[in-house]
Design goal:
Structural class: alpha+beta
Strand content: 35-45%
Shape: elongated
Order of helices and strands: EEHEEHHEEEE
Largest sheet: 5 strands, antiparallel
Number of helices: 3
Strand order of the largest sheet: 1-8-3-5-6
Helix content: 25-40%
């Protein structure tokens, strides 16, 4: 059994989904493992990780619109607003989507489906520099 770890930095451009499948896949390939489990962990409370369709651009728009409805930016709705009106909604969106993912590695390949991509989901309006801790255990 082997283990490998790294931290990747992702620059975001405000609210939205930034696909990170390619850098993650490249790092996994460099490790030379055939079987194992990849774990990704977002080190932030106002951004998250999701696996989602990477073909139709409308999916991203629909996801952003949905989260704007279920965790709206409304100063009257929240007590916590230390960093502005998008602060508490960002925390709620992070809770709903999660900050970690696990993806099996079989035959040297991540077992993502045909249309699946790994995304950092930025919940804040301003650009941020986010860190994703990556761990892989396998053979």
């Amino acid at each position: 059994m082997r283990q490998a770890t790294t931290i990747i930095t992702v620059d975001t451009y405000g609210q939205g989904l930034t696909e990170i499948t390619r850098p993650v896949t490249a790092w996994v390939r460099e490790q030379g493992m055939g079987e194992g489990l990849l774990t990704l962990f977002c080190r932030h409370t106002s951004a998250s990780l999701i696996i989602q369709e990477n073909a139709a651009p409308e999916v991203k728009t629909d996801i952003l619109d949905y989260f704007a409805r279920i965790a709206p930016e409304d100063a009257r709705a929240y007590a916590h607003d230390d960093e502005g009106p998008d602060d508490m909604p960002a925390h709620l969106r992070s809770i709903l989507t999660g900050v970690h993912l696990s993806v099996p590695l079989i035959g040297g390949r991540l077992m993502l489906g045909t249309w699946q991509g790994i995304y950092l989901f930025e919940h804040r309006r301003a650009p941020h520099r986010r860190q994703i801790a990556i761990h892989m255990a396998g053979v």
